[in-house]
Amino acid sequence: MSEQKSWGDKLRFGFKRTSEALGGNLTGLITKEKLDDETLDEIEEALIASDLGPAVAARVRDRLASGRYDRHLSELDIREIVAEELEDILRPVAVPLEIDAFPRPQVMLVIGVNGSGKTTTIAKLGHLFLEDDYNVMLVAGDTFRAAAIGQLKVWAERLGVPIISGEEGGDAASLVFEGVKRGTDDGTDVLIVDTAGRLQNKSHLMDELSKIRRVLGRLNEEAPHNVILVLDATTGQNALSQIEVFKEVANVTGLVMTKLDGTARGGVLVAAAEKFGLPIHAIGVGETLEDLRPFDPRAVARAITGADEFDGE
Ligand SMILES: Nc1nc2c(ncn2[C@@H]2O[C@H](COP(=O)(O)OP(=O)(O)OP(=O)(O)O)[C@@H](O)[C@H]2O)c(=O)[nH]1
């Protein structure tokens, strides 16, 4: 119970800068007597300025326009209406990561640009699975940098889970192969693989992933079962271009968005949901292991719009 509450508080706190930005953009528009076209245009622009993107802003505008509100709408009314629309957009993509009964281990490749929070996210996902009593193993497949290998080893130790790692510059695919073999023998449920999947150049990423696939295919045709793209919300609209490019070169199966706490640009979560419809497995609102969770679309929509700050929920 208290865990739930504290996550709710973290969400509201995390999205505070986003909801303040949205509120700031809306303030002044709401005092108008009725929702004429000019006010609707201004609200639409305010939503775009909040990183929700033009498509989401247009949806909200349509909703407001079709409401035929014959009364003065307060700021809270507007926030409530926006929150409902955002919830509708987020609901279909709020898909928690599931571990299938078979085959085990389930192989999850984690990709993302440098500094997106990839390594931390792997640790946080591991923590989530451990909480659900799954056996977890990590693979330090980002062999480009010794620091990345070291960092993942520290996380593995903290989590108390095994890790397969090699030397800097080593072959990621053979580490993954070893991980699946060991994981099969040890009864591992989920193998989470860090990758150097970073888009320094597209062909390198494609080569890396296709080699991993090829090698994995010898053990299990369906692996990798998940290819998870980690995105840093503070990059705003740039996160959308990253999805576009990664989708082109890797078979991205789902997203994790991090650093929603450090930014006024959290609206990009909704823009991504609307534009791509890819599952968003979890969101990160802080640096500790507990700060990554599958999300409740209603709670997130209300945190983004700050609706609950107003009605005292
Ligand atoms: N505030 C906040 N910080 C985060 C979050 N997720 C990750 N970070 C921080 O972001 C920084 C980068 O995270 P890493 O996990 O090292 O990122 P990476 O993508 O693996 O980066 P490289 O190892 O450089 O490839 C670290 O300081 C993390 O603590 C989050 O949800 N919120």
UniProtKB/TrEMBL annotation:
Which top EC class is given? hydrolase
In what residue span(s) does the SRP54-type proteins GTP-binding domain sit? 105-306
Instruction: Look up the record and report any one GO term of the cellular component aspect.
Output: plasma membrane
> Domain AAA+ ATPase spans what residues?
104-255
**GO molecular function (one):** GTPase activity
Name a single GO biological process.
Answer: SRP-dependent cotranslational protein targeting to membrane
Q: List the catalytic activities from the record.
A: GTP + H2O = GDP + phosphate + H(+)
Q: What keywords would UniProt list here? A: Cell membrane, Cytoplasm, GTP-binding, Hydrolase, Membrane, Nucleotide-binding, Receptor
The answer to whether keyword Disulfide bond applies is: no
Q: Where in the cell is it found?
A: Cell inner membrane; Cell membrane; Cytoplasm
Positions binding GTP in this chain are 112-119, 194-198, 258-261
Coarsely, its chief localization is membrane
Report membrane topology: Peripheral membrane protein
Q: InterPro entries, from UniProt?
A: AAA+_ATPase, P-loop_NTPase, Signal_recog_particl_SRP54_hlx, SR_rcpt_FtsY, SRP/SRP_N, SRP54_GTPase_dom, SRP54_N_sf
* Domain called Signal recognition particle SRP54 helical bundle: residue spans: 11-90
Task: Tell me which EC number(s) this protein carries.
Answer: 3.6.5.4
Pfam families referenced in this protein's UniProt entry, alphabetically: SRP54, SRP54_N
- The source's superkingdom equals Bacteria
In the record, the note on similarity to other proteins reads: Belongs to the GTP-binding SRP family. FtsY subfamily.
- Function of this protein? Involved in targeting and insertion of nascent membrane proteins into the cytoplasmic membrane. Acts as a receptor for the complex formed by the signal recognition particle (SRP) and the ribosome-nascent chain (RNC). Interaction with SRP-RNC leads to the transfer of the RNC complex to the Sec translocase for insertion into the membrane, the hydrolysis of GTP by both Ffh and FtsY, and the dissociation of the SRP-FtsY complex into the individual components.
Task: Outline the subunit composition.
Answer: Part of the signal recognition particle protein translocation system, which is composed of SRP and FtsY. SRP is a ribonucleoprotein composed of Ffh and a 4.5S RNA molecule.
The protein's name: Signal recognition particle receptor FtsY
Q: State the species of origin.
A: Parasphingopyxis lamellibrachiae
Query: Source taxonomy lineage?
Result: Bacteria, Pseudomonadati, Pseudomonadota, Alphaproteobacteria, Sphingomonadales
Gene behind this protein: ftsY
